[in-house]
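Record pair follows.
FIRST:
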Amino acid sequence: MTFLQTNIQTLLLWFLIASANVSYGKVTNEYSATTVELTFLSNEKRMSGFIYIAEGQELHPTVLLLHGYPGNEKNLDVAQALRAQGWNVAFFHYRGAWGSEGEFSFRNAEQDVQVVLNYLMDEKNAKNLRIDNKRISIIGHSMGGHMAIAGILDNQQVNCAIAYDGANLGANDIGLINDPKTEIPWKAYSDTLFMLNGWSAEKAVQETKTFARELNLVNRVQTINSRPVLLIGADTKVIPMEFHIKPLLAALKQTKNSKAFFELINDDHSFNTSRMALIDTTANFLSKNCSGN
């Protein structure tokens, strides 16, 4: 085959691909499903984020999806599945994480969650993004599970929260990093997290040691006020259930008119072989307890 023939075939192939895209491209309208990039300001530092907006003109129930430590697993398959069921899903990176400005810390991340929640609940922002700001829930994975529970405890306007194998960063008033029984080398791991600006093992140890009681979610459960919470455990050594999940579940269940639930998905920390089970469990809980329908 000559050079000219090869180039003609290549051009023909590209023409067919382009024609197919034009022919089968879906016509969009003002209220189609879409993605909007967002910038949130926390203590004058810019945090990167976005929101998946569900199809339809109406205001949608909305989930704030929180990543873990450092956030390699983002659970965006969950986000896309929820959007297909009529939910908006917002996502962001905490200060100092993955290019967001400022320095990372656990307490900063708790504050950042409240900044984003306030943004989503603002009347003007909610209208522009088709958010029903009376139906906002939080989902978080691992460290993000801590942030999800802290988020609902610190904000009475949040409807529901779900933690995926969630940590309690102040567990037992000791904390994740400082637990002498942990089998995970959290200190050494913390020193490898170059995507967390200004962070180190020394800072991780110091923050969780100094502020363990403040970070301990068990000490904060009285503000739940009967709002539904689901803890999903993976039963791994990454987040030991006996140290993190079971004490928090027990404390939540002891609150007045408790709506605390637990599900076990027997998988690894990121639920790698159980994604559909994770999505179904999430969607069913939200539909039953949090959609307002």
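SECOND:
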Amino acid sequence: MILGMPKPERTSRTWPSRPGLKAAGVFAALLAIIVVVALTAFAQTTPGGSRSKIMAAKTASPPSPAITRTSPSAGVNREITVVGIGDSVTSGNSCNCETFVQLYAAGLASRSGLKTSSVNLGVGGWTSSQLLQSLTRPGAFRDQVAKADILLVTIGANDLTPLETKQPSGCTTTCYSPFVKSVGHNVELIVAAARAAHPNHPPTILVTNYWNVFQDGDVGTAENGAPFQSWSDLLTRAESAQVCAAARRTGATCVDLYAPFKGDGSKNPTSLLASDGDHPNSAGHRLIASTLLANTPLPIA
């Protein structure tokens, strides 16, 4: 047992002199630095190293939420005002129901979480000239349009009323072209006037065309005959082209209602029309609202 114990000189070793201590300390410090550098380089170059994970946890930023069609505006806390202007389609004639203006505002709020309100300024019988006149003179109408964040415009069918008594064979392109071109010109001026009403906050503007400028569906065919319906379809397409071209020239969005109501022209729109065969019923207004929502430019400022 005594022989197995450490020798006295090992336990009672004295410290080296100061010069030796200093040299040993420098050597130890250098050795420690080399070890730290080596371990750091190893941790940074080793996949999945603990240091890499720690740094990643400190520097990674949470992903930004993507703006989608169901989130059309980021960071908008104020109320979005939707204003509808136009004729009897906008005002909801022949339909004791919520109009597409109200439905659109409600749908926008539901999809996006935005707070919305709606104002319907549609007037039955109005032409594009009458709408333009109301927008270019001071008054309550212009003031309400100036509050719009989103402006819905449906106008032009009543401009063609003088053609309704014409016989299709007696009113070809040269007959109706001046009418449809006039509508297109007025739509361009209407969009410009709406923006001028509040130049510091111009609205997002959606301009629609029509499925038919006159009666349609079973009622239209029964009252006017198939030849007249074919002619009114041709007339509607011609006006739609002018309206959409005018909207695009001014930076507004043209929203096509022809295809949703009639497809390629072979679809019967009777189920979407009121009993007069002219104005949309509740299903028609819902379809217009959903079509507008699907074509709303994003984001909403």
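COMMENT: The domain at 80-294 is CATH 3.40.50.1110 (Rossmann fold).
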